[in-house]
Amino acid sequence: MINFQQVSKTYPGGHRALEKVSFHIKPGELAFLTGHSGAGKSTLLKLISLMERPSAGQVLINGVDLNAVKSRQIPYVRRDIGIIFQNHRLLERYSVFDNVALPLIIEGTHHKQIAKRVHGALDKVGLLDKAKCNPATLSGGEQQRVGIARAIVNSPPILLADEPTGNLDPELSMDILRLFEDFNNHGTTVLIATHDIGLIARMRYRSLTLKDGRMIEDPLAEGAL
Ligand code: ADP
Ligand code: ADP
To answer: Which residues form the ABC transporter domain (predicted)?
Structure first.
């Protein structure tokens, strides 16, 4: 599903963010990506979502070699990937409903379908009653759940999260992780980047660890077992 083969990324200016990183995440898996600040976690997620390109090596998503994907094809590949950020990047000029509807509007989905799917997504994250609210009036945890509803509204097979619990207290963080678990139980492949080791320890999932751009720990790596 997500396959990295000897992937390196050097940013313009010469900073090497990833160094020969290899791993494979199978369909239906849930895994954590951890490591210190600056270890390369965001860069790794950006390579999966085609926000950045590798300097060397191959990234394969669903068997598609991303090196072969041209710029104009990127939106089609991205439809398979829901992304959640720490700062949910909600548009404050629009309602919760409209924020969640945005990916469907961009895809050109019929408006009857939009209403159905947005309500379905808001129901999953427990925010149906907030559909008409302005996101600025919601709590931090609720705003994060709006971001999650937006990421899953078109049912992407892959869900990526970059420090999704960064601004939340431990209890709300567990709620958010339970949501990811729920999507995963319904077949979604989930990769969560976080430096919250305590949170990871409370869940029994595979954990990939980056240090200075290198993968130093992967329970499923060849030779590691
Ligand atoms: P993490 O998400 O683990 O904190 P990042 O992937 O954001 O790590 O960053 C890895 C390294 O790459 C850091 O040293 C960071 O400063 C550098 N970096 C990230 N983005 C850029 C960029 N656009 N240009 C130059 N250097 C960058
Ligand atoms: P319709 O087909 O019913 O005219 P639209 O596709 O124009 O519907 O818009 C559907 C909903 O999306 C509307 O509620 C509208 O306010 C909202 N919307 C339109 N453009 C944007 C945008 N750029 N960002 C957020 N919401 C938007």
So the answer is: 2-225
In tens, the pLDDT along 34-70 reads 999 999 999 999 999 999 999 999 999 999 999 999 9
The gap from C-alpha 128 to its chain's centroid, in whole angstroms, comes to 22
pTM: 0.85
CA of 222 to the centre of ligand 1 (A): 27
What ipTM goes with this model?
A: 0.69
Tens digits of residue pLDDT in 73-118: 998 899 899 999 887 789 999 999 999 999 999 889 999 999 999 9
Domain 2-93+156-216: assigned CATH number: 3.40.50.300
Enumerate residues 6+ apart whose C-beta is below 8 A from 68. none
Q: Which atom of ligand 1 is nearest to the CA of 213?
A: 10
For the chain, first and last CA: distance in Å?
21
